[in-house]
Structure formats: C-alpha cells, structure tokens
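Q: Given only this backbone (142 positions), what sequence would you predict?
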C-alpha cells in the first residue's frame, strides 16, 4: 500500500517539476548597480520590446531603466536548466556579442560576455561599459 501511495505521489508531482524547469529562463532579472534588466523567455521566445515592436517576438532583451536603449537577444540555446547561450546585438545593429546566462539558484543569475563587442549602455549622457560578468536578481512574481 505504501509503495502505491509513493508512486501516485511521484506521478502527481511530475508536472510541478516540469513546470519549474520551464520557468528557469522565463523571467524578469535586474541589476540595481548598473540600472539594467533582462526580460527573457528563452523557451517560447515571445518577448516584445516596448516601442520597438518592429523586431517582433524575440527570446528577450537587456534594457536600461529610464531609457529606451537595449541589447536585443536575437537567438538563444538553452543548454540545461542552469545555462543558456545568447546571441545579442545593440538596437542600432552596429555591435554584437555572444554571452552565457547561468542560473546560480532560484534568484541569482550571472551574465558573462563572451566573444564580440562589450555591452555599453547610456549613463548620464555618456556610454558606460558593463563588466564582463554581471549578476542579476530575479524579480519575485506577485
């Protein structure tokens, strides 16, 4: 009897585990030190950039708070529930790079810039280079 209950319990929990895995790279992530954020859905790739709808549905983008400038994620590959590779371009299309997004735990993500350009964002009328490794926190769902 206990064996049957255990099998039923595990069967009922399977959808929860699958849903949790699908949620790892569908998030709003932010970094307050540089006032940047990542809005991503690397699974359905259905993110629309506000004010830049002509790009259509995308895996996501890196945006700057109080600014319309962004780095567009043009393609991605989810390698595991902990790691994804991102191809990114700035919204002018003049610079591109490859980056890795790694999930440390449920709330901390690390973006590591790889080959290509360095991410620069507007800051007080000048361009500010972001560090090659940047920590993001996941915004809690309400």
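A: Predicted residues:
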């Amino acid at each position: 009897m206990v064996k049957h209950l255990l099998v039923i319990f595990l069967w009922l929990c399977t959808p929860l585990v699958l849903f949790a895995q699908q949620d790892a790279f569908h998030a709003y992530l932010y970094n307050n030190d540089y006032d940047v954020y990542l809005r991503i859905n690397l699974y359905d790739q259905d993110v629309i950039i506000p004010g830049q709808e002509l790009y259509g549905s995308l895996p996501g983008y890196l945006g700057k708070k109080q600014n319309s400038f962004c780095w567009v994620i043009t393609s991605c590959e989810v390698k595991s529930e902990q790691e994804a590779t991102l191809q990114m371009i700035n919204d002018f299309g003049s610079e591109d790079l490859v980056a890795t997004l790694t999930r440390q735990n449920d709330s901390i993500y690390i973006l590591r810039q790889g080959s290509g350009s360095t991410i620069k964002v507007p800051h007080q009328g000048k361009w500010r280079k972001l560090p090659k490794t940047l920590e993001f926190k996941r915004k809690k769902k309400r």
